[in-house]
Amino acid sequence: MEIQHFWDLTIPATFGPVTSASIIRAETELNVQLPAELIALLKIKNGGRTAKMILQSADSSIWMDGWYEIDELFGINDEDTDKVGILSTAYLTSEWDLPEKQVLILGDGHWWITLDYRTNLQEPTVNWIEPDADRDIVIANNFEEFIKNLVPG
Fold it and tell me: Hey, CA dihedral for 58, 147, 132, 110, is it positive or negative?
């Protein structure tokens, strides 16, 4: 997937434009370095509806026989909003009893796609976490691979 084809630009972003200050604030609050590819995407559109894409997993027992539909990506939340974004991670991790060192980038509570920093603080894997089924599966070795593996749906 090419970065310029990632977003559905006919639908507005969830949050206001990303700035250097908002990136620093997010990385400081989350205590991580966000992947450069994620920052590049959020500079185009700060969260919201993506172009219709799918990602196939080697594990066919999960979501749609191994196919993940990617139709949204969380942005960097504004401080004064109740909309979910990556800065909602601490609250949602506690609420859903998720592993630490995650940054949630998509999900609804019953499942999440996360940046998983548990084993590498510089380059997180991208994981599928399904708390109710006790699943925690690496779906990409890094965010760049995650984006490259998406295909039009």
Answer: negative
